[in-house]
């Protein structure tokens, strides 16, 4: 027997009373939205999980370079993320830029660095659909994983680079003169292109300006480690350069020898790789089909080899 104090009460429950209702479980709230400045720490944490070989400095440096570029109002600065109950569980960097050409200004978007936590991987389609809604924008992917190549083609992307050429420029035709980027040589270029070249030199690219006295054009190279052989020997690499931009009107074949001489005088590499749709008979070297393909969808696709302001130069090797 137990004694009850005066402060204790005994609930009176009848066997006929209904059982209390079980509270309904709230469904998880999922949404896709643009990345804001306050999200960058969470976004970088996700990217470091998905790309374990990339440091925090790698992401912060590239995003800071992209942040410095002007964009019109209403355009996402960094891209998109997926939230589940307020927690960032997926990210897609979408690096927009304004492109000026003969047809006028247009928007180009480099779709880059997709990652969704494994337990939420089914939500990844939200990112893709949300990011590619605007048909007036040209979307490019310059580093697609091999398992996504067929998916890109199914979504209407077309190949803008089907392989790469390794060329020895010193063996090309000698015409004109190629000189390092300087205030004097930048003055030979249109203002918008001079600004593009100066930006990329500040990112660490090697820049040359070629001229024959009548016309001029720019070339930009990024230092990269180049794989020697695929397959089991894919780990073998040698230092080299990748052509990441040249002036649209520049005849690369006619200035190749002068470029090769300038590279040797600067003690840079005697060879470089460039993106190509197919083997170029006008350039000395070897073509590697299927290597580093790139895709684009939209009204103004870039020419093969135009990697300006993409992740390849913003984030670096």
From TrEMBL:
Span list, region Disordered: 1-30
Name of the protein: N-acetyltransferase domain-containing protein
Gene3D superfamilies linked to this entry: 3.40.630.30
